[in-house]
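The pair is set out directly below:
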Amino acid sequence: YKPHSKKLIIAFLLLIFQGICTACLPILTVNIIDTGIISGNAKMLFILAISYAVIAILSNVFTFYSNSVYNRISGEVALDLRKQIIAHLQSMDGEFFSKMKSGEITSIIVNDVANIQQLCSQTIFSVFLSFIRAIPLALYMLFLSPLLFLIIVIVQPLFLILQNRVAKRTQSEAKTMRDTYSQYNSFLQEYLYSPM
């Protein structure tokens, strides 16, 4: 990630702006209904509607550019990883290749690197964006209904525990699928490249 530090900083800044804009939209919606529509204040309704439209457009612009930046970063990271893996494989001796199946090597180069790329381009940034969105919305919820905020704070750890248990089960299943896919790759390559 060091060669991509500048792009990462830009991507995270765009995500911060995107998260702030996204968090402002529901607050503006409440004010449009309460202050503009129910109160019958046409001038305030017009101002809030224009503000909503501008913030929504800015949110989409920040989303587009942040997606472009961190998709480019993830692609460059995946390319660098594949280059490093291939360079490392070229330095290995024949004994390594006699023990290592070709399908396993292909699975590492293609699937494992793709999973890392997905982690870089989606998971990390989506968690960071969700965290940014949650802070202002949590504060606003605390202001509107402290009781509802307290209930969510109590219930949220239960979801985290459940998510952790599900993640542990899927890890073992993912390993099984990876091994199966490696065996399938090995069989397919041996079948295709064997003399007919």
Observations:
- The mean pLDDT is 77.
- Helices lie at 5-38, 42-90, 94-99, 102-144, 146-193.
- The chain is about 90% helix and 0% strand.
- The radius of gyration is 25 Å.
